[in-house]
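We treat protein structure as text, and this decision shapes the records that our systems exchange. Because each token names a local backbone shape, the row as a whole describes the fold. For reference, a complete record is included directly beneath this paragraph.
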Amino acid sequence: MKVSDQFIKKILEKKQTSSRGFFDKGNMENFVNNLYNVLFLSQEIHAENQIYIEFEELHEILFDLIKNTSEDEVFAEKQTDHFFLVLPELYNSLILDAESILEFDPATESLEEILLSYPGFFATYVYRISHQLWIQKIRILPRVISEYAHSRTGIDIHPGAVIGKHFFIDHGTGIVIGETTVIGNHVKLYQGVTLGALHVSKDKANEKRHPNIEDHVIIYSGATILGGNTTIGRDSIIGGNVWITQNVPSSSLVYNKSEIKIKDNGTLPESLTFVI
């Protein structure tokens, strides 16, 4: 196989003109996973000095990631320091999230089970750290971090979304939460929920495109809620497979009425006699 010199030069030229913002994705994954382990899992870390050492290493990794996206060492140092300054607040929020799962999910028996195995909690963890970076005006890195969680869990949460405390994702596969979504406290989402935009257009990038979900709302599987002017009022229950593009008052029950027929399968209707 022979690749032309002209093609190789074109690749190099393109890399040189668009190199800003690139970083080692392996380092990003190490940061996400190692921070999770330090906060929640690593039982072999018993002494305070060991945790300090782990945090120093994580600080160095995050600094390099931010520096590579910004090409500004002063900015990277400042933003890295700030992230670790607010990390206790993120940790406290995540503990509340885990405790909500433990309180309401009858399938779990311990906090350890949640921390070790629940994709919804891991996706929430990744959201909370990526959102913190997002509000610190760091852009490419939190987007890549959020997509890492998406690839691992099937849960897609944009780091720009605003999500309150005691957040509970049950099962989770197929959940999509858009950039300008605002979610209150004590909200529960089931698999396949979409909190999306009514219009997908680049000229609306700076507008409020995604819905507002107020406190103590439960949204069951397959529900689709669209639009920046759409608000689901507090204490509401949204049933499965509904499609909502308008406001829902507080304390509402919204459900999709469907009809199920059961008959013998001796003679199938013509619409079902097909082969894929």
